[in-house]
Design a protein that fits this description.
It is built from 14 helices and 19 strands. By secondary structure, the protein is an alpha+beta fold.
Amino acid sequence: MTVAAKIRELIGESGLAEPDAGGTPRAVPASEAECAVILQAAQSEGWRVRIEGCGGWMPADAPATLALSTRRLTGVVDLNPADMVVTVRAGTRWNELRSLLANEGTWVPLDPPGSDRSVGSVIACATAGPLRTGFGTIRDQLLGQTLLTADGRLVQSGGRVVKNVAGYDITKLAAGSFGAFGVITAVHLRLRAVPRADLTLVAHGNRDELLNRARSILDAGLIPAALELLSPKASPADRWTLAVRLVGSDVAVAAERDAITAASGLTFEKHVASHAADFWQQTLAGVTATPTTLRMGALPSSLDDALDTIAHYLDENCEDWISVNVLAGVVRWSGAADGGQLRLIRGIAAQHEMPVTLERAPWSVRSEVGHFGAYRDRVGRIVHSLWKAFDPQGVFAVPLGDRP
């Protein structure tokens, strides 16, 4: 029996979509129960499974016996504005969720890079955007989730302290695991009230000078919603741009604007309403214009070194998409690079204890490099031990790195 015929037998004709360009059958389960049945069959039959969302971030090109898409696992399960919590299925598009929440006067303070992302993709890849400065990482907004492991076990986590029988905090583990620990089918997210005022300030100039001015803002004890340094390719300007986003009450935003202007000594342009939304949308969507994206972590005081490393090994002419979250110490670069270049920069960064995560790339690159690179002793062994515990037979086609 073919794989497609087996899927048809398990969940019916509606559970199959068009195969991918290489002829790999694609399953589209409509429920967690159908998804579990598929994974149980994959485990017993020795199939290799590729998890897919909306295709707006990671290329759907990992070699597999079966592609498992979450495109039918959509919709809001529960929205409770009073408790400021939303439960949403993983195949829901992030933009659709944002629009729905806005109608209820709420939002999730996350602005993941890219466009046309699914909720599951945002959580699985943990691709936090500029709002990480003021609101924290994706894990800070994630209250719980429903996950299906490689053998079809349903694991639900949530609440203040939730662990599965093996003692792992599944909520934190699955966020940023790139699907290595299971298929995320639904998530519980923390909500906030839509702020009355939302102001974006931008200034242009020299990279190092703007970076120093951004540090001056932080040294003054000011933490805006976003504080992002953008390369010319990442902003609608031909120079480096420092972008500051302020949210809150009218009075609070005005006071913060004045304090940031004084602390930085910069003359800012002001963007409000639709102009600000267009600015951030254009910036965040541009990350996928090139095939490969990585993020490098560094102390805020070492961001110059991180940027110089990227410039030397990947972007000598400063022509690629680069964003720098100054407070978090995260540099995100997007361009074109082969596996050899990425392994080299990961090794150089490791010498300075700067972790490098490959966020997206063609399969030929990410299969060679892996998403994670250990920069401290024993980190790699811990990650691989967890990976082996959740997917011992290697059902999921996820290249975290070489298996032990």
